[in-house]
Structures are given as structure tokens and as C-alpha cells.
Amino acid sequence: MYYHSEIAETVPNNAEHNAAGYKAALKSVVMLKNSGNIIHRAFPGAGKPTVYIPMVYSAATSGRGGGPASARPAFDPEISGKYFNVVTDVLAKKLTGPADDKGNPTVSPKDIICASKAKISECDFALVRITSPQNGNPTYMGFGGFTTEGGKYTYLPISLQYRPYTANSKFVRLESIGGDMIERTEKSPEGYGDLKTMVKENRSYFGKTAIIRNESDLDLVLKTASAAKKVIVALNVSNPMVFREFESKVDAILVGFGGDRSSWLPDKAFLEIIAGKAEPSGLLPLQMPANMETVEKQFEDVPRDMECHVDSDGNTYDFAFGLNWSGVIKDSRTEKYGVPPVVGRPPE
């Protein structure tokens, strides 16, 4: 006799469906940059390139899905070893991070013993996998405001860049559109006692600075770029992001829409494209902004109104942009979707 849960598990988890899911994952990857065609069709009979894959440090998180700090190679060594000769970092035998709930020390960034610059420079290229900027504050899931000791809510900006962002440009709203109705008590000017009125809460974050949990991802890319001959960055993104902080320092960028390193997007999808076993075919389903000012400037109800990032190869990271081995993709999809955005209201 089968339980319903056992039957349900066989529906998504079977060979046919898993193969279809992987195929969809592979097609979803977007190649944004490919300077010098570092990513190209695999040459028959060519040997494995030697690739440096650094360890990535992830800070401890709280709330649902949270966990202790960790450090591991950006790609699974066993899987990536099928495509490349892998050079990576090692962990110190004695960890120095804060103790976990069982009293055991956890990993800290200084516990990662990096490969030497000389060793990295001997590799054909470096492969770094990072996650788009992850906003966080002391509240559940890291969105909205956080409660101070006085019980007052302070709202923070959502940043799309790694380095600290303070929302103080002229485009930041001083009065928020949304907000709960809250009770306000004032003294009556005539001395008749307190007056209680209902006013809309102002959730403006003008002048506040966003909290980014993974600024170390940017540090890792820049540090690797300073030592390696060439660098390929594989990005897990969950929303638009600002690329100008590192784009010009790397040779190739691949984007997968898995969200984070624990996402559904398998290592193999990135690796097969990087190794030239599969040609990238994805297109951007959104715009990648030039900076945070254009993010604040955009209208909430107008699509595709941001100034987009233009990379060092002259390509614009706009809606429906993507590269394959031959260059910028031009096909029936881009003909249909890569058109100027609709401006203004249609005639009645």
C-alpha cells in the first residue's frame, strides 16, 4: 500500500522529468559577457584546461532557512573535475569562528587558506561563483524595517549593489507611497486635552544605508581578478543588480536565475556552458541598472524605464539581451521582445 506522499514524490523525481528540468535550467542561463571568446565550442581532442575555483565564504544567517557560516568551493570539485583540472583553496584544520549551538567552532573567513598567486596565475582561467547582493536586517526574511529598542520601525533601502548604499539622491521619496494608518496624539492648542488622529505612516528610507550580507562576494571576485590570467563569473541572481562594481575586471559573466547557491540551478548547467559542451541561449528577462540612482528614479508603474549597464565590450544589459558563441543573439525571440518599450497610454 502506497501513501499519497510516496506517490507524489515519484511525479517530479523521475528520470524523464529530471531531464526536462535540467534542459530548462540549461536554456535559462544567460551569457552577458564573453571577451575574447573565452567561452567557446569545445575543440575535439582538446585536453582539460586547468581552472582555479576559489572557496566561497557564506556568513551565518538566522530565521527560516538560516544556518551557521560555511566555506566551500564555488563549484562541487567532483562535478567540475569532469570538465577541468581543478585548483582550489583549503580550510585550516582548526576553525576559529564562533561556536555553534553544540559548542563547536564554525568557520571564519580567515580559516580559508587561499592558493598562492603564483599557482593561480598558472591556471588557464579562474571560475568564481557568487550570488547577487543579498539584503538583510534583523527582521524575518530580511525585508521591510527593523524594530529598535524603542519599538519604532526604521525602514531601510533595498540595494542592488554590494558596496554600502545610502539612499540620499534627489530621486529618493521623502514621503512613501504606502504605509499603515497609525494613531498620533497631539496636545490641543486650546488646552482641551489630547487630540487623537489617524495619519499615514511614512516609510521613507531617505538617508538610510542598506545592509548587504554578502559584500565578501565582490571582494572575492576582485581578489581573484588581481591574480588570475582570466576570470569567468557565474552569478546566481534573484533580482536585478548593479554590475559596474566588477564587470570591467572580468572576462566573462554567466547569469542563472536560481537565487542563491542552494538553488535549483545545478552546477552542471554552468559548467557545461563554460566547458563548451552546450551553447548559451538565454535572454535577460529584466533590465540590469547602471547604478542605484536610476533604480530610485524609475517609476513603479512603468516598465523598462531604467538606464542599463553598458559593459566594457559596449553591450547593454537590457531586456532580451544575451550572447551565444557567435556574439549577440538575434533570433525570433529578440525580434519579438527586443523592441522599444511602450511609452505613454494607448489611445482609447
Question: Which secondary structure elements does this structure contain, and how are they paired or packed?
Answer:
Layout: H1 4-10, H2 15-28, E1 30-34, E2 50-53, E3 55-58, E4 70-73, H3 77-80, E5 85-88, E6 90-91, E7 112-113, H4 117-122, E8 125-131, E9 145-147, E10 153-155, E11 181-187, E12 194-200, H5 215-225, E13 231-236, E14 252-256, H6 267-274, H7 292-297, E15 323-324, E16 327-328, H8 332-337
Sheet with the most strands, sense and barrel status: 6 strands, mixed
Number of strands: 16
- What is the name of the CATH topology of the largest domain? Rossmann fold
- Helix coverage percent: 10-25%
Q: Segments where pLDDT lies below 50 for 5+ residues? A: 139-144
From the spread of the alpha carbons, the general shape counts as globular
CATH architecture type of the largest domain: 3-Layer(aba) Sandwich
What is the residue-averaged pLDDT?
A: 87
Strand content: 15-25%
Distance between the first and last residues' Cα? 61 Å
Number of helices: 8
**What structural category do the secondary elements indicate?**
alpha/beta
- List the strand order in the largest sheet: 1-14-13-8-2-5
Order of helices and strands: HHEEEEHEEEHEEEEEHEEHHEEH
**CATH class term of the largest domain:** Alpha Beta
